[in-house]
Design a protein that fits this description.
The protein has about 475 residues and is of the alpha/beta class. It folds into four domains: about 40 residues; about 60 residues, no CATH class; about 230 residues, Ribonuclease H-like superfamily/Ribonuclease H (Nucleotidyltransferase, domain 5), CATH 3.30.420.10; about 60 residues, no CATH class. It is about 45% helix and about 10% strand. It is built from 20 helices and nine strands. The strands form two sheets. The chain has a six-stranded mixed beta sheet, sandwiched between helices. A three-stranded antiparallel beta sheet has the order 7-8-9. Helix 8 packs antiparallel against helix 17 and helix 13 packs across helix 15. The protein starts with 20 loop residues before the first helix and ends in an 8-residue tail after the last helix. About 25% of the residues are buried.
Length: about 475
């Protein structure tokens, strides 16, 4: 809680005035007005309104323009600017807590090169956030969120319908070329496993190929009309060297972070160098659709969106397999081609000598990747927007998929599978005179053959496709590269 200062009560004989700060301003304004109009002198006005003569004189000469007491770090205009941005984030479906508010202020100060001595490492303390909310209690309020179970947190038809209710209002009269879907993924330094020919009976087939667990983050973005925006690469490094950006496509942007992942600074750089230039070329409102990570948005991004008629639509949590076009129809082809390109590089002379993927070689490999996916990329993007119900706007397909994936449907499916398995097991055991206790089966002759229980288990288990694979199979498979 903030440290609330309480003034000690004093008598009037010491010359102090016992008016509140709010009343003080109105009294001084009335007194100064009478003096300016020539009705009273400074001494007479001070006596009439019960204020100090020196205080009234300083007020009229604007000697002390600041309010009494401790001063705030930001001006009232700056604080109002912050309040409006916080409200905008909440309207976009991304409410923040006090810690995220403090991190937002730290990024705001770091971007402008401002150092506040009372903030440790430019990070405001809990007292500042509490006092900030107290000063703006008419605009902002804290509410306690409820804890829900994991099964309830999973996305279902209700969440998808709520998302589409907001989407329909936001996308009204917005053409497909003005709808941008963005998502970050990573390209790993592991070409993956593949089937090889070995001597029969080999238990541990291996191949010699250098690989590591390192990844390079990359932001892809595309429009509903099938256009791919320039990719944005983020290396895991402290510094960014020129050799890491040479030899690749000319329109790709590069950056680096210590973690190798996107943060508010890198997302802001992507927005101003890739997203905003595309939005400025459009004649009407532009909508960005992406995940709801708090690290993706800063005050500068929100301000630019309000200035250039840009809206953000944030996807519901755990729903990217239903609502993210890049996840649904693009990233699978990207990862498949990347593993092939990486395998070819690993077998080259440079790749065999390198323990890991050199960052100086990555731009060239990225250029090969973009060339290989260019033939079908437009069709895949448009299929992804259609499958997610964005263009054309159709909520039925994602809602139906969410109903199939809901816990209630899964429970009913599991019950039916268990009943079927029990029926099949009883049919097998009763129809062929199989004695499960002895593990033998009697045929028409005198021969005896052993029954392996693992065969029965494998027979009863049915393959279950992953949610995302089922969605991909529903697409036009001819559009995927062979």
């Amino acid at each position: 809680m903030p440290r609330n200062y309480k003034r000690v009560s004093v008598s009037t004989s010491d010359g102090r005035r016992h008016y509140t700060v709010e009343r003080r301003g109105s009294l001084l304004e009335c007194a100064s007005a009478d003096v300016r109009d020539g009705k009273l002198s400074v001494r007479q006005a001070a006596k009439k309104y019960d204020v100090s003569k020196s205080t009234l004189h300083d007020y009229m000469t604007k000697k002390h323009v600041k309010k009494p007491g401790g001063q705030t770090v930001f001006t009232p205009e700056e604080e109002l600017h912050i309040v409006n941005r916080v409200i905008t984030l909440g309207e976009w479906g991304l409410p923040i807590d006090t810690f995220e508010l403090r991190m937002l202020i730290k990024c705001y100060l770091d971007e402008r090169g401002i150092t506040v001595k009372c903030f440790k490492n430019n990070l405001p303390g809990t007292d500042w956030s509490s006092c900030f909310l107290l000063r703006h209690k008419n605009q902002l309020a804290q509410r306690v969120s409820q804890n829900i179970k994991v099964a309830r947190a999973k996305v279902g038809p209700i969440e998808i319908n709520q998302y589409f209710d907001n989407l329909e209002k936001t996308l009204k009269d917005v053409p497909p070329s003005n709808i941008i879907n963005y998502d970050e993924t990573n390209l790993s330094d592991d070409p993956g496993n593949k089937k090889i020919l070995v001597r029969r009976g080999t238990r541990y087939p291996e191949r010699v190929m250098n690989h590591t667990k390192s990844n390079i983050s990359i932001m892809f973005s595309c429009s509903g009309s099938g256009k791919m925006l320039p990719p944005y690469v983020v290396y895991k490094a402290v510094n960014l060297y020129d050799t890491w950006t040479e030899g690749g496509p000319s329109n790709v942007r590069y950056n680096r972070t210590e973690s190798g992942w996107f943060d508010s600074n890198t997302f802001e750089d992507w927005f101003f160098k890739v997203g905003l230039p595309h939005a400025k070329r459009q004649d009407s409102k532009v909508v960005f659709i992406g995940d709801n990570l708090a690290s993706h948005l800063s005050l500068s991004v929100v301000e630019a969106c309000e200035e250039h008629n840009i809206d953000f639509v944030l996807l519901p949590p755990n729903s990217t397999h239903l609502t993210q076009p890049l996840d649904v129809a693009v990233f699978r082809a990207v990862k498949t081609h990347w593993r092939k390109i990486l395998s070819e590089f690993k077998t080259s002379s440079i790749g065999r000598r390198s323990v890991s993927l050199p960052k100086s070689e990555f731009p060239k490999l990225l250029g090969q990747l973009l060339n290989r996916i260019s033939d079908n990329i437009m069709k895949n993007i448009m299929n992804g927007f259609r499958k997610c119900g964005i263009t054309p706007l159709n909520r039925q397909e994602p809602v139906n998929q969410a109903e199939e994936d809901s816990p209630e449907a899964a429970g009913a499916s599991n019950d039916g599978t268990l009943e079927t398995q029990e029926l099949e097991a009883s049919t097998i055991t009763d129809g062929t005179a199989m004695t499960q206790a002895t593990g033998t089966s009697t045929g028409t002759g005198d021969e005896m053959c052993a029954i392996d229980e693992s065969d029965i288990v494998m027979y009863l288990q049915e393959p279950i496709l992953d949610k995302r694979e089922r969605m991909i199979f529903d697409l036009d498979v001819t559009s995927w590269p062979q």
